[in-house]
């Protein structure tokens, strides 16, 4: 059996992951490819409601059950909620689509778990422990497929706070320290795993909204990179082992 190429659009908060995932899907479909896209957590699913409500406390779902808020929950506990959401939805809805389409786009994936949870580490050793734990839990134990391409969109926190100043926040987004640490960890992960990185700023520092690249500018960078990679032979359009059904 052949499988779709899996592309992950990852990024810091406010970097436009959802928007760019939609634009990439449209672009690839115009090329005649069969494409499906999914955004994690899948909040309308059973597990997504647990993540979005009970864990994060998103106002449109429900209050969090964690008095300390999600930003302060032990990372090895936190990452399991997200891993469960991915396995549940892949088993129930997504895995079959991997074998029916040419490309699957994930807006956030295992990579998000690594960025946000490893950001809670106090030392480099702890950071590596959390990253390795998530890698083992999600890819090995939960049997999630590994992506062929990861594109990392970097929007500095200062710019994100400006763009989202009037938006309601969840337990992570409302904690500046958590978001700052996640940003730092994402930059580390991008280098560690050689993700393709796109800086969402035109200039070195954010001062005004004019310093932010337009949606089309970022989209064009993504499209150029994807066009070059989809034809490379090392991306193997081959069979991957099916997830275990119990």
Describe the protein.
This protein is of the alpha/beta class. It has a single domain (5-230), classed as Rossmann fold (3-Layer(aba) Sandwich), CATH 3.40.50. Helix content is 47%, strand content 11%. It is built from 8 helices and 5 strands; from the N terminus they run βαβααβααβααβα. It has helices at residues 17-30, 46-55, 75-98, 110-118, 124-141, 157-163, 176-192, 215-230, and strands spanning 5-11, 35-39, 103-107, 149-154, 196-199. Strands 2-3-1-4-5 form a 5-stranded parallel β-sheet, sandwiched between helices. α1 (17-30) packs across α8 (215-230), α3 runs parallel beside α5 and α4 packs antiparallel against α5 (124-141). The radius of gyration is 18 Å and the shape is globular.
Percent in helix: 40-55%
- Overall mean pLDDT: 92
Largest sheet: 5 strands, parallel
Order of helices and strands: EHEHHEHHEHHEH
Instruction: Tell me the fraction of residues in β-strands, as a range.
Output: 5-15%
Task: Find the count of extended strands (DSSP E, 2+ residues).
Answer: 5
Kindly report the name of the CATH homologous superfamily: P-loop containing nucleotide triphosphate hydrolases
Q: What is the CA–CA distance across the termini?
A: 22 Å
- Radius of gyration, Cα only, in angstroms? 18 Å
Number of helices: 8
Instruction: Tell me what the CATH architecture is.
Output: 3-Layer(aba) Sandwich
Q: How are the strands of the largest sheet arranged? A: 2-3-1-4-5
* Inertia-based shape: globular
Uncertain ranges = none
Q: How many structural domains? A: 1
